[in-house]
Specification:
This protein is an all-alpha fold. Helices cover about 65% and strands about 0% of the residues.
Length: about 475
């Protein structure tokens, strides 16, 4: 490893430690102690119950005394798949070593969040050079829409991590297409789908274009690699799907929560008025539900479909509002207030995150144009944005549901900022050095741009 590379990695480690300090400081200063409810309750207690050998059961019904306002019956060990299992398993790793308190899980989430900063930096470095990598690391370290999730203890921390890992593996495969690398990419996509089910779309949005729409390889090899990667991605899901087949009366693939979410996202309260495009807990029916989640989904599905079919003329506007809530063009300040009440997100940080989002969108356009001009594939960065948009269009707009797209936004924004920096440097006649990307990565020879005066990796960074 050269001296320049050592300095780069040293800077990255320093930024990652700063990111960890920020996250831990926020938890200790503002998020502890805190009342545990909702999804954090499910993930935290679900992880501890898993370590205790109870399996994947619904902790809300197992600990009814902890939520007295719900007026739940006596404790019930109810098989559950309301959420995909990866987040619970990841938190259970901490529980397995005795770190079972909610604070322990918050701090463990902070560690994972800081690891995501490193992955995001490595993605940017691979496609746009070391300077872009460090810019991405700094942005990811301070971007509130990343670190606010870590303090809550939800799946968003882990989908950010797995999505960033998908992006890194995708570009490694693009740089050196091989069977081993496509298998790794498929497996990582499977892990992302076990974190948030909609990530299964990465098989078509990331793996397909990289494996099939590339030149210089026989079609047979392209199709074999796509098929092999997809097969591994599906195989990663099989143990969970098979486990669910033994626990429920009706088929449950990755989760049983979509139908319940659909009810909360399709009712008068969120089709009309101030909450349009949001969700409403009180839309759930006040009827006795059984102890089999798959039975309950049938009830929820019928209710949701009936409501949508009766209000089809309103659906386009509601979808517009849902997307606007996560992309910041519909009631953005009302959304911040709602997040503060429902998600207990700190308003000042959320406000800073909103304006940083706008900035990343602007510089991200420049970054996307820059990458496109250099023939760097955009599918690993566009796929999370498309996936999030589709998922929200079908459910509802909530800020943290944008989490899977945040790594891509940071990388695109960092590439755009680096391109602007480079152009200004060229105008001033300056020349700076840039260490090569990790693993000697970069575009394939037929994609390699003409080197620029800066001498960076994948250098010849075209002006945005």
């Amino acid at each position: 490893m050269s001296g320049a590379q050592r300095r780069w990695y040293g800077a990255l480690v320093a930024i990652a430690l700063g990111a960890l300090a920020l996250r831990v400081g926020y938890v200790l200063g503002f998020r502890h102690p805190v009342r545990i409810a909702g999804d954090p309750f499910y993930y935290h207690y679900g992880a501890n119950l898993l370590v205790e050998g109870k399996g994947f059961i619904n902790p809300i019904f197992y600990f009814p005394d902890l939520l007295p306002e719900w007026n739940l019956p006596a404790s019930v060990s109810m098989p559950a798949a309301q959420h995909a299992p990866f987040t619970i398993v990841a938190l259970a790793v901490a529980s397995l070593f005795g770190f079972t308190s909610f604070l322990d899980h918050q701090l463990w989430s902070c560690v994972v969040g800081s690891m995501s900063v490193v992955l995001i930096a490595l993605v940017a470095r691979r496609i746009a050079g070391g300077r872009a990598g460090l810019i991405a690391a700094v942005v990811a370290a301070i971007y509130p829409n990343l670190w606010l999730n870590d303090a809550i203890v939800v799946s968003e921390t882990f989908i950010i991590f797995t999505t960033a890992l998908v992006m890194l593996c995708a570009y490694r495969y693009h740089d050196q297409p091989s069977l081993s690398r496509v298998l790794v990419l498929g497996a990582v996509i499977g892990l992302a789908a076990l974190t948030r089910p909609e990530a299964i779309l990465f098989l078509g949005l990331v793996l397909l274009p990289l494996a099939v729409w590339r030149s210089g390889a026989p079609w047979r090899q392209r199709l074999i690699q796509f098929g092999a990667g997809s097969m591994v991605g599906v195989l990663v899901l099989v143990p969970w799907v098979a486990h669910n087949a033994t626990r429920f009366e009706h088929p449950v693939l990755l989760t049983s929560s979509f139908e319940m979410t659909a009810v909360q996202a399709n009712c008068d309260n969120v089709y009309y008025g101030d909450k349009t495009g949001y969700w409403e807990f009180y839309c759930l029916p006040r009827v006795p539900l059984g102890n089999d989640e798959s039975e309950n989904t049938l009830i929820y599905r019928e209710l949701a479909l009936d409501y949508v079919s009766e209000h089809l003329d309103r659906v386009p506007y509601v979808v517009f509002a849902r997307l606007g809530r996560i992309w910041g063009y519909y009631q953005p300040f009302q959304q911040i207030n709602a997040d503060a009440v429902v998600e207990t997100r700190a308003k000042p940080a959320a406000m800073a995150g909103l304006f940083m989002l706008y900035g990343l969108m602007a510089t991200g356009v420049a970054g996307g144009v820059n990458l496109r001009r250099r023939r760097v594939p955009l599918s690993p960065l566009v796929a999370p944005i498309v996936t999030v948009s589709l998922a929200v269009a079908l459910t509802f707009g909530q800020t943290r549901y944008r989490a899977a797209a945040e790594p891509a936004l940071v990388v695109l924004g960092a590439v755009g900022l680096e391109a602007i920096w480079r152009r200004l440097s060229i105008r001033r006649g300056s020349s700076t050095s840039d260490p090569p990307p990790i693993d000697g990565g970069g575009p394939e020879p037929d994609h390699d741009p003409t080197p620029s005066s800066s001498g960076g990796p994948l250098a010849g960074v075209a002006s945005a």
